[in-house]
Structure formats: C-alpha cells, structure tokens
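Q&A FORM
Asked by: J.P.
Topic: structure of Acetyltransferase (GNAT) family protein

PROVIDED:
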Amino acid sequence: MGGIGFVATYLEYRNKGVMKAIMIDALERMRHHGQTIPVLAPYSTSFYRHFGWELFQEQLQFSCELSTIGADPKLMNEVKRTSFDRVNAAVWHDIKQFHNPLANSRDSMMQRSDA
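REPLIED BY: S.T.
REPLY: Here is the structure written out as tokens.
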C-alpha cells in the first residue's frame, strides 16, 4: 500500500497539469516499489472520483470555532511565501520558534527541524 495525502498547489499553478504529473509520478513510484494499492486522502470525493478514485471507508469530519484553535480572524486568507533556495538562518530560527510551540499544542502538526 502506498499513501497520498494533502496534495495541493499554489493557485497560480492550477489547471496547468502540475498535480496530474505529481499524482502520475507518485503512482508510478508506488508500482515500482511493489505498492499495488494506492490510498488517497482526498479533500473532495467528487473531484477525485472524476479521475477514477473511489471511497473504501467513510469520511470523518468535525468542525470547531476559530477561537478554539487560536486562529486570528484578522489573518484569515493572508498568505506569506518565502523561498528556501537560500535559507536565511535567522528567519528559519524565527519560523521554528513560532511554529514548534504551536505544533506541541495542536493535533496533526509536525515539529520543524533544520532538515
């Protein structure tokens, strides 16, 4: 079994075949490694059903208030991007100092290391 989850692209790369190429490459790599059952965690069942995927178990959904997860409504829909081609050690240190304490207190967040 090989798994694919949390697949996404930046808005400016949508409808240009980027995700299709990534998905095909992932499936080919799984096949090469003997993983004959690909499992996908889709964001949209109908979207992936269009490409031949099908559900094999029910979805789990939950909702909560923004205040519960500590989100600041003033920052919603704000995206900040940076390039890591040349990592600025001070900026990366600040990112880890901000992110890692949050990751310790929330589900499904990973600690960020220098790697």
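FOLLOW-UP: The CA atoms of residues 54 and 115 lie 35 Å apart.
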